[in-house]
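Handout, page 2. Input:
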Amino acid sequence: MSSIAGFFQPNTIYSKENEFCIKTIHDMSKALYHRGPNEQSFYYFPHGAFNQNFLLAGYIPGTFPHEVQPVTIKHQGNTYTLLFDGFISNPESIAMELETRQISTKDYSLEKLLLMSFIVEGTDFIKKLRGAFAIAIYDEGYNLLHLFRDALGLRPLFYSKKGAALVFASEIKALFCYPEIRPAVNMEGLTELLSLGPARRPGSAIFADVAEVKPGHILTFGKEYFREDAFHRFEIREHKDSYEDTLDNITYLLNQSIDSLKGSVTPISSLLSGGLDSSVVTAKLASLGVDAKATYSLEFENSVQHFKSNSFQPSLDAPYVQEMTTALGTRHTIFTCDNQTQFQYLKRSVEAHDLPTMADVDSSYVYFCEKVGAQHKIVFTGECADEIFCGYPWYHRGDEDPKTFPWSMDLSPRQCLLNDSLLESIPFAECVRSAYMDTCSEIGIDGENTPPELLHQKTFYLTIRYFMQTLVNRGDRAAAINSMDARVPFAHQELTEYLFNVPFEMKTRNGERKSLLREYAKGLLPETIRTRPKSPYPKTYDPGYEMLINNELLSQLAKPSCPLHEFVDKDKAASFCRQVKDLGRPWYGQLMAGPQLVAHYLQILYWLEIYKVDILL
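Output:
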């Protein structure tokens, strides 16, 4: 975990003492300080400036040590400069490639290794990297800036083109430190926010004139030159491995992922919900001899009293957490989130993301990470297992093809609070259909007429590109705002690529959900944990929380100056807040039901107010 930021103006020459350069890059660094409070470094060159903020806990020690960035190499009369956020799991293979070209890497840092690989192979070097990364490289000879983002989008990288300049940063907030970039949302961004939110189209940042480098893409910018190319794509292939060989391969890849992440310079911990995914990670770390005895879980005040079992959330976590911590002998801490805290952290979550998020699902997680981060700066999580091992309900609907995003098939809940004039002007269905069809086409599938044998790959790909990306962003920002590093072993490129083509029947052998992961966990977990039905991240069922957010929304809408009046109908909101909400029927994912819709609109309000967003309709 760290941050990178900078601006590049190929048509302008700045002096080293230029006040605009110094102030702008320092303001950008300050905005991203939480991502890297241990080390701030700057680089000034004739056409702009760069910054990196480094988090010591985010560094994974290995064969190649860390070097203060930006890193510059002069080679054959040219100068190259690199910024890097993330980790690389295969540096040894990159070094071997260079050694075959008679380039000694004996005294190289990881940063120099990456930069020399670029110098030798050009942008193709990125195809050989594995890990989570956002990289910027400036080629002085060609006066070109290259931006790279890993195949799964595990590290964020946003940018904005303003005139002849390109500005980039790990989080959107830093872009607004550049004087010409102002927070604004046009009809396109608002339509996406209200139609797809809290998900985003790959490359979108909702704000006008702001974008994100797409996962697995390269962006190159120079004087009168701008190009974006994909260096990685998921490909549909026939799966020829037997069940036994498939399990062996998954075992190897998952073990490899956990092993590559276990190194640290500070003590590590793990989030433990008592579910299959987090228990696998925690138990595997213990089996590798890693000192990860600190575990943490989150509960909600009065959860036993108010919990209502449903098909999306069948059981509370507490009994399973107790069983797992007893089995592993961990030092476990339970943090309790009350209604007022969850409500107050709705705004903190917006500040972490720079955008409206998954309502209290995000706000409670930001609070959770704050409490954990005060004790441990490195935490392992079980996130992303449901996406690749098919734990979500929409994977298990038989041959039904919704021909849209399966976690958000009904758009009507999103529209029930909007005023009639906005409903007439926003093309909800067209926005969703366009995003859906474009995503299907990336793997060569017709989303409207998908052959039955390709339905699973389509659902898998939609899930990792949208739903998983939303949760990856959630984990990154909640950890980053608290200056900690969250490690996600299931978010592993080769494991995800392999499972993409494993037949659904093999992933659900004998009708058992996530059967491959459950088979992996044999002998690793107690049987009650290994066979526990899926229960997602917890949420509160306390009516007191619902009362809090209902009152807040109505109170805000009573103000004539409330920005929500642009699109929320006050009478519809009042009627909705008086209704008993359906707590089990979500409008997004598994957890976003009636109360979360109210909280989501509150987050939209906070977003408009905090960032002073201009609404360009």
